[in-house]
């Protein structure tokens, strides 16, 4: 099979595209013919040498995929050859990744693709939608009628948070950089959009939510916690999901006096049953048209190195060159 893989960590140029042996499934696994995969920032960190865990050699990059089951293991009972499926949480915790024509995946991490949903769309939402669901529904427990502030509503995770919050009946305030991204956030359902290129976010947020927001979703790697805590309502919940090396000051007094709570999590540590619960809601919203991916472009799988370069420029170098996810398809 053709695959995008690395034999050592480093810059995007270390990604090779060529032939590897077809994977052999174990009893609890299914073999999936890949229809589409997508790029996530964590993919670039692992490829770049982030020492989270030991990697298989050679290591196929990628976390997400969508495609069609071609073979099932002897212990698998709920999936059959021909089923259209999507999966996430691959290429993590020492598992092989997804950027290949065929992938062997434990059935616990495989979910049915709803009728009418393209492989490109299922692959594009996989990791980011599960991440958003874990934070919005299971950590912050956002309720209908509450107000959530989302930092970066046009981003991969941010766009999922905006749409999920609207799907459950919340009021959504978000930020975006420039008119095009602000318009996109409104298309996704945001009630108020702050353009951080021209607006004073703290002032505008206080104007739109004078009593404070119930949930503050923070995506900045080095956040201004004085600003965010001041913007929160009594019993507010803050979600943080970035800034592994950040050490910002934190206003403990104002935070605990309001009775607020802080929620930090990483998607790949959530157990399979928890992620399956996320996938059930995601599939429902996909089928109902309440959740749609934002795809910047679709590339051939052989351009994995180029895709990693584009993602790295956007995420780490802040070039803001992307408007949505990068999706790749086997040729």
Fold and architecture overview:
The longest helix is centred in the middle third of the chain and has 21 residues, at 119-139. The mean pLDDT is 95. The chain has two domains: 2-113 and 294-329, Quinone Oxidoreductase, Chain A, domain 1 (Alpha-Beta Complex), CATH 3.90.180; 128-267, Rossmann fold, CATH 3.40.50.720. The strands form three sheets. Strands 3, 5, 6, 7, 8, 15 and 16 form a seven-stranded mixed beta sheet that branches. The chain is globular. With 331 residues, it is of the alpha/beta class. The protein has helices at residues 41-48, 119-139, 156-167, 179-187, 201-208, 225-230, 252-257, 272-288, 304-315; strands spanning 2-6, 16-19, 29-38, 59-60, 64-72, 84-87, 102-106, 110-112, 147-150, 171-176, 192-195, 213-218, 232-240, 261-264, 295-300, 325-329. The protein has nine helices and 16 strands.
How would you briefly describe this protein structure?
Helices cover 30% and strands 26% of the residues. With 331 residues, it is α/β, with parallel strands linked by helices. The chain folds into 2 domains: 2-113 and 294-329, Quinone Oxidoreductase, Chain A, domain 1; 128-267, NAD(P)-binding Rossmann-like Domain (Rossmann fold).
């Amino acid at each position: 099979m053709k695959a995008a893989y690395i034999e050592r960590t480093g810059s995007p140029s270390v990604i090779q595209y060529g032939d590897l042996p077809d994977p052999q499934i174990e009893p609890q696994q299914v073999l999936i013919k890949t229809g589409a995969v997508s790029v996530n920032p964590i993919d670039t960190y692992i490829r770049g040498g982030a020492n989270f865990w030991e990697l298989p050699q050679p290591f196929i990059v990628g976390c997400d995929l969508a495609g069609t089951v071609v073979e099932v293991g002897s212990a698998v009972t709920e999936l059959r050859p021909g089923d259209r499926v999507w999966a996430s949480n691959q290429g993590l915790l020492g598992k092989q990744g997804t950027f290949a024509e065929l992938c062997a995946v434990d059935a616990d991490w495989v979910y049915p693709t709803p009728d009418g949903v393209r492989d490109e769309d299922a692959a594009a939402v996989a990791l980011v939608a599960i991440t958003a669901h874990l934070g919005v529904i299971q950590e912050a427990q956002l309720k209908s009628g509450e107000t959530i502030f989302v930092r970066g509503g046009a981003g991969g995770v941010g766009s999922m948070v905006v749409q999920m919050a609207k799907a459950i009946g919340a009021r959504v305030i978000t930020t975006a950089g420039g008119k095009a991204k602000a318009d996109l956030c409104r298309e996704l359902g945001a009630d108020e959009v702050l353009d951080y290129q021209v607006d004073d976010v703290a002032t505008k947020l206080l104007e739109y939510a004078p009593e404070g927001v119930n949930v503050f979703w923070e995506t900045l790697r080095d956040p201004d916690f004085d600003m965010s805590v001041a913007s929160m309502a009594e019993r507010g919940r803050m979600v943080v999901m970035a800034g592994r090396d950040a050490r910002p000051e934190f206003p403990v007094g104002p935070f605990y006096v309001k009775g607020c709570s802080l929620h930090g999590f990483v998607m790949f540590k959530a157990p399979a049953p928890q992620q399956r619960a996320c996938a059930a809601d995601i599939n429902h919203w996909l089928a109902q048209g309440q959740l749609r991916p934002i795809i910047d472009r679709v590339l051939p799988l052989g351009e994995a190195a180029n895709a990693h370069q584009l993602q790295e420029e956007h995420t780490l170098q802040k070039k803001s060159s992307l408007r949505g996810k990068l999706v790749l398809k086997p040729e």
